[in-house]
Specification:
Layout lengths: L1 H13 L6 E3 L1 H11 L1 H21 L5 E10 L9 H8 L1 H17 L4 H10 L4 H29 L6 E14 L3 H68 L4 H36 L7 E3 L18 H7 L1 H21 L5 E12 L11 E11 L7 H68 L4 H36 L4
Parallel strand pairs: 1-4
Antiparallel strand pairs: 2-3, 3-5, 5-6
């Protein structure tokens, strides 16, 4: 620790001389708020919460999405079986065979001579008729076979390469209250982040005030230690002259020397503490830690005045404390989460509409072109059975709400205690300041009387040192009482939530 203090003092001594910066309490607060990293984090969190709220609002609006796909399959969709394809490809041959078989069966009971005689009477040669019929039937069979083949080809879907796409619109109508609950949660979250930023702001101001008044206190104690050391030096010079003249003993001189050593050690400790406290203040307000700063209250004779007796105001604390508001937001969030979970047991209704396309075109005989159609509809989802899953989740959420409510009540009780304690502390600080001011007058008079008696030779150096020590204690108590008044007022303002 001593080595660290030596390095700090050495670094301060090696710094170039520059203009000293004068800072007031308000300027320190402003700089701390401007440079505090957590304040920036709080601002970013507020922006995030705002965007989440805006996102939740979009759940009320219709959502449009597009989808496209390509799929290659090893086999295509067949509208005809293999037997049906074979039948259609040979429909002419099969038909002509059936016709010939039918004609043969119809004339099988008649002798061929009689058939030829009858045809001859009609002027038709039987041999010519057989030849012509065979040629005609073969031609007809070929045409029918070709027609069947074209029909088979026309029913070929060619769906191994499938392209499909569509545009779909969904407009929520009733989602079991989940959208309303989610929007309320987004609003609550935005409020919570704002209250969190207020809490961070008050915490930053509170920390800055604490460090500021610590620096002021150490600076005043530094001046006090220097004044006390000057008194001892003057007394030491007087005592050593008296020793030389034989009117004082060497023991008196040694006693003064011991006191001087103690005073120098105290001054060194105060100087070190002041350097470190200024470093902490510089870091808090965003300045380089070795910045040469001076505070406006360092040279003030009176650091605090007696404050008006504070009024116990629990209602103000409950209304203003951001911590309580955040806990209230937590209870509200838990309740809305329960509503979201309850929506799992309620029906959901949405309107749908869109346009779908495919290639092959299923609307036109699987033609290798894109074709599509419009569609509108209503989507209804009704939960029937989920083994109590939603019920258990709702119970768990209600339990979390009960916990948040109990924590809120406990926080209110603690804040009430805190306000009472800080109000009491302000009153006690005022009393201590009044007593310290009275002691200052007595200590000054005691020191004046002791110095006068020492000059007249009726009081020993030991008595003078006792008067100087009493004066030092009175002055130190006054500084502590003034700082305590300031800090107690800051504590009370923070507990009331009015620290701005």
């Amino acid at each position: 620790m001593n080595r660290l203090l030596g390095l700090v003092l050495l670094a301060g001594a090696s710094m170039p001389v520059c203009a000293q910066r004068l800072l007031t309490l308000d300027s320190c607060r402003a700089m701390a708020l401007r440079n505090n990293k957590q304040m920036r984090v709080s601002q970013v969190k507020q922006d995030v919460a705002t965007n989440i709220r805006k996102s939740a609002r979009t759940k009320y609006l219709p959502h449009v999405s597009a989808i496209g796909t390509y799929q290659y399959t090893s086999r295509q969709v067949e509208l005809l079986s293999d037997d049906q394809k074979s039948t259609l490809n040979n429909i002419g041959t099969n038909s002509m065979t059936d016709l010939q078989n039918g004609f043969a069966q119809a004339t099988s009971h008649l002798p061929m001579e009689q058939v030829g005689s009858v045809l001859g009477m009609m002027g038709i040669d039987l041999g010519f008729l057989k030849t012509a019929s065979s040629q005609t039937l073969q031609g007809m069979a070929a045409q029918l076979n070709a027609l069947g083949g074209r029909l088979v080809d026309a029913l070929d879907t060619d769906t191994r390469n499938l392209f499909a796409g569509g545009v779909m619109l969904v407009q929520p109508v009733f989602m079991g209250g989940s959208i309303v609950a989610l929007n309320k949660m987004a609003d609550i979250n935005e409020d919570m982040q704002r209250h969190s930023a207020d809490a961070r702001r008050q915490s930053t101001i509170y920390t800055t005030d604490k460090v500021y008044w610590q620096v002021v206190s150490l600076r005043h104690k530094q001046r006090l230690a220097e004044s006390y050391l000057d008194l001892l030096k003057k007394l030491d010079a007087d005592v050593h002259r008296m020793i030389e003249e034989g009117v004082a003993t060497r023991s008196d001189g040694l006693a003064v020397d011991v006191k001087m050593n103690e005073a120098e050690m105290t001054l060194t400790k105060v100087n070190d503490g002041l350097v470190l406290s200024k470093m902490l203040l510089c870091q808090t307000i965003g300045l380089p830690i070795n910045e040469d700063i001076k505070l406006a209250d360092e040279e003030a004779e009176n650091l605090a005045v007696l404050a008006v007796e504070p009024k116990l105001d629990i209602e103000t604390a409950v209304a203003n404390r951001p911590e309580l508001k955040m806990l209230e937001n937590g209870v509200q969030l838990s309740r809305q989460l329960t509503n979201v979970l309850k929506a799992g047991n309620l029906p959901m209704v949405a309107l749908t509409g869109g346009y779908a396309v495919s290639n092959p075109n299923v609307l036109n005989g699987f033609q290798r072109k894109f074709g599509g159609f419009w569609n509108v509809g209503v989507l209804v989802r009704i939960p029937i059975w989920n083994w109590g899953d939603v019920m258990y989740k709702v119970r768990a959420s209600k339990g979390a709400t009960s916990i948040a409510t109990l924590e809120l009540e406990e926080a209110r009780e603690k804040i009430e205690l805190q306000v009472n304690q800080n109000t009491f502390r302000v009153n006690e600080a005022n009393k201590k300041l009044t007593m310290a001011q009275s002691n200052i007058e007595r200590a000054n008079e005691n020191l004046r009387t002791a110095n006068l008696g020492f000059k007249e030779g009726v009081i020993t150096p030991t008595t003078v040192m006792e008067a100087q020590t009493a004066w030092l204690q009175a002055q130190s108590q006054k500084i502590d009482a003034e700082i305590d008044v300031r800090l107690s007022q800051v504590d009370l303002q923070k507990s009331l939530g009015t620290l701005q």
